[in-house]
Design a protein that fits this description.
By secondary structure, the protein is α/β, with parallel strands linked by helices. Helices cover 44% and strands 14% of the residues.
Length: 251
C-alpha cells in the first residue's frame, strides 16, 4: 500500500503532530494527496519550547492550521510516578486529549507518525495508541526512517535531518518521581547547549539533580571539546557535576 492508497481510503483524519521528522512528512504527504488532515500538538511539561516552534513552522510552510492542546501530564499520578509504564500512560493521556478535541472538530480517525523502523516491543506508547485505534500510515505503508528522511529532503522539509528527540521525562531515571523543576532545569540546560551548536545529545538527570550525565553524538563530542569551558559553563549553572558518557549516541 502506498501513502496515496491510504489517504484515498481515509481522506479525513486528525494527526497527533510533534513537528518531528515523521509527523511532518506524514502531514506533508497527506496534504499533497488531497486529504483533509488536521494536525494537533499536545503541549505539556514534557515538551521543550523549540518543539512547538518547529511544529508551528512546519504548519506555516505547509499551509496547515495547527491546533495546540494544553495538557498537564504531571497531574496524572501514573505518569508523575515515572514507573516503567510511564510512556504507556502518557501516550494514552495524549491521544485521549486529541480524540476528545478532534471529535468536537468532526474528526473520528486518529493518526500518528510511527514508522516501519519503530520497534513496537520497545515502545509501550504504541500499545496505548493501538488501544485507542490510532492508525500509523507510515508504518502501514512500510516507510522506514531512512526513507522518510530522504523523501522529506526531496519535499523541501527542514525537518529531514532533525535529530530524533525523546521527551524531557526520559532524562529522569525510571522510578524517580518527575517534578516540574527537574523538567524545567533539563530544558534550560539542553537549550543552552543547543545555543552552542550541539544538535544530537541528552542531558541526563543523576544524583537527584546534582549531576548531569551528558550523552553526545560523535559530531557533538567534537563541538563540545572545541568549545572548552564555554560548553561546560552553562551546565554548571544547573548541576554540581558534569560527566560525559563514554558511549556515543547513535541517533
Amino acid at each position: 500500500m502506498t501513502i496515496q492508497d491510504f489517504f484515498t481510503a481515509c481522506p479525513r483524519a486528525a494527526l497527533g503532530f510533534s513537528g518531528g521528522t515523521d509527523s511532518s512528512f506524514l502531514l506533508c504527504a497527506a496534504l499533497r494527496c488531497g486529504a483533509d488532515v488536521r494536525p494537533y500538538y499536545v503541549n505539556s511539561p514534557f515538551q521543550p519550547a523549540f518543539e512547538l516552534e518547529d511544529a508551528r513552522r512546519v504548519c506555516a510552510l505547509l499551509g496547515a492550521e495547527l491546533t495546540v492542546i494544553e495538557l498537564d501530564t504531571l497531574a496524572v499520578p501514573e505518569i508523575a510516578a515515572n514507573g516503567p509504564d510511564r510512556c504507556y500512560h502518557c501516550k494514552k493521556a495524549i491521544f485521549s486529549a486529541i480524540a476528545e478535541r478532534a471529535a468536537s472538530d468532526g474528526y473520528s480517525l486518529l493518526l500518528d507518525g510511527a514508522n516501519a523502523s519503530d520497534d513496537a516491543a520497545d515502545r509501550p506508547g504504541m500499545r496505548a495508541a493501538g488501544e485507542l485505534a490510532v492508525r500509523s500510515p507510515l508504518r502501514e505503508c512500510g516507510l522506514t526512517k531512512e526513507a522518510i528522511r530522504r523523501l522529506s529532503r526531496e519535499a523541501g522539509l527542514f525537518t529531514w535531518d532533525k535529530p530524533a528527540y525523546a521527551c524531557l521525562a526520559t532524562r529522569v531515571p525510571t522510578g524517580e518521581a518527575l517534578t516540574r523543576s527537574a523538567l524545567e532545569t533539563t530544558e534550560q540546560a539542553e537549550s543552552a547547549l543547543r545555543g552552542l551548536g550541539l544538535r544530537d545529545f541528552r542531558v541526563r538527570w543523576r544524583d537527584g539533580g546534582k549531576t548531569a550525565l551528558l550523552q553526545l553524538s560523535a559530531a557533538d563530542l567534537g563541538r563540545w571539546r572545541a568549545s572548552g569551558a564555554a560548553a561546560d559553563a552553562p551546565l554548571k549553572r544547573f548541576y554540581d557535576n558534569v560527566i560525559i558518557d563514554k558511549e556515543l549516541r547513535r541517533g
